[in-house]
Write a structure and sequence with these properties.
The protein has 374 residues and is α+β, with helices and mostly antiparallel strands. It has two domains: 194 residues, Sandwich (HSP40/DNAj peptide-binding domain); 114 residues, HSP40/DNAj peptide-binding domain (Sandwich), CATH 2.60.260. Helix content is 29%, strand content 26%. The protein contains eleven helices and 15 strands. Strands 10-11-15-14 form a four-stranded mixed sheet. Strands 1-9-8 form a three-stranded mixed sheet. Helix 2 packs antiparallel against helix 3.
């Protein structure tokens, strides 16, 4: 399985600061640490993946190499390392080469074309934008093909020369007793070419870092954590390889009125003491404007009212959710003397037959008496 992009592993953007990277790693390490998740193979794998990503992105030199070459820039088994000519290649390299010798493929040249890294962009949108869909423009930092040398890495008017170490094969062969070992050329890093007169713009890398502006269409009904894939809009590939993909991860801003639960919306609506007791009609907000709810007499605080079809139309299900409105009876404050007098009179009347006017209080008191016993 191909490695995930290190920025995606930590859940940060490409231009994240060192502090952002450290915070993201600490959060994942706390969540997936083996001590907190004993006998959980998935958590252990995620912990190791986060640790590997942090070790690269927290090191300025390794991060620069990763930004330029992706995994190939930081994985010696893929890209080769300085001085690697004196050692063995990877397990797969060695045995692949042995079988090549046996079946007559010793002179074959490996493909040194690498796909560009996938990128992740965290996009924050409003609840209204998530419900109705929208189109927005984003700017992302990316490594793209150098416009001066068109990816060759050589100064205009010149061209790369064949690598003198590997003869243009991109691989070097070593004899270790009975075994013939083949590994990536440490000089040209597998490209088979040497840049003798590097491009002044990219320094011979063939790619430059720049800001790219893209248009992103957000479909109606997207939810927190949904990903939108922009094919080929990741980093440019190496040696003519295809570009990676860009994944736009949706994050929905906290709303002042509504909370979202899948396709349903929830809200709390304060109502007066008299409306709860006598009944009435109230207006509640929806994403399509105001709607009316009939409050029956003797409504208790916390009662839930459902407005069908007033939620969000799911991007996958295609069906509308509901709006769930919970009414909360508001106790009056800053009472005038007359209001206080009326309430005291009401309390006096209620006290004459409390069980008739306050059935929940009576039921609760009966349970308390039963708990404490005779």
């Amino acid at each position: 399985m191909a490695k995930r992009d290190y920025y995606e592993v930590l859940g940060v953007n490409r231009d994240a600061s060192d502090d952002d990277i450290k915070k993201a790693y600490r959060r994942l390490a706390m969540k997936h640490h083996p001590d907190r998740n004993p006998d959980n193979a998935d958590s252990e794998a995620l912990f190791k993946e986060a640790k590997e990503a942090y070790e690269v992105l927290s090191d300025p030199q390794k991060r620069a190499a990763y930004d330029s070459y992706g995994h190939a820039g930081v994985d010696p088994s893929v890209a080769g390392a300085a001085g690697a000519g004196a050692g063995f290649g990877g397990f797969a390299d060695a045995f692949g080469d042995i079988f090549g010798e046996i079946f007559g493929n010793a002179g074959g040249r490996r493909s040194n074309v690498y796909r560009g890294a996938d990128l992740r962009y965290n996009l924050e949108i409003t609840l209204e934008e998530a419900a109705r869909g929208t189109e927005t423009r984003i700017r992302i930092p990316t490594m793209d093909e150098c416009e001066t040398c068109h990816g060759t890495g050589s100064k205009p008017g010149t061209s790369p020369k064949t690598c003198t170490t590997c003869g243009g094969h991109g691989q070097v062969r070593m004899q270790q007793g009975f075994f013939s070992i083949q590994q990536t050329c440490p000089r040209c890093h597998g490209s088979g070419k040497m840049i003798t007169d590097p491009c002044g713009t990219c320094g011979g890398v063939g790619r430059t870092k720049r800001q790219k502006t893209l248009s992103v269409k957000i479909p109606a009904g997207v939810d927190e954590g949904d990903r939108i894939r922009l094919s080929g809009e990741g980093e440019a590939g190496m040696n003519g390889g295809p570009g990676g993909d860009l994944y736009v991860v949706i994050h929905i801003q906290e709303h002042a009125v509504f909370q979202r639960d899948q396709n349903d919306l929830l809200c709390e609506m304060p109502i007066s003491f008299t409306t709860a007791a006598l009944g009435g009609e109230i207006e509640v907000p929806t994403l399509d404007g105001a709607a009316k709810i009939r409050i029956p007499a003797e409504t208790q605080s916390g009662r839930l009212f459902r407005l069908r079809g007033k939620g969000i139309k799911g991007v996958r299900s295609g069906t509308h959710g509901d709006l769930l409105c919970r009414v909360m009876v508001e106790t009056p404050v800053n009472l005038t003397p007359r209001q206080r007098e009326l309430l005291e009179e009401l309390e006096s009347i209620n006290a004459r037959d409390a069980s008739a006017h306050n059935p929940r209080a009576k039921s609760w008191m009966d349970k308390v008496k039963e708990f404490f016993g005779p």
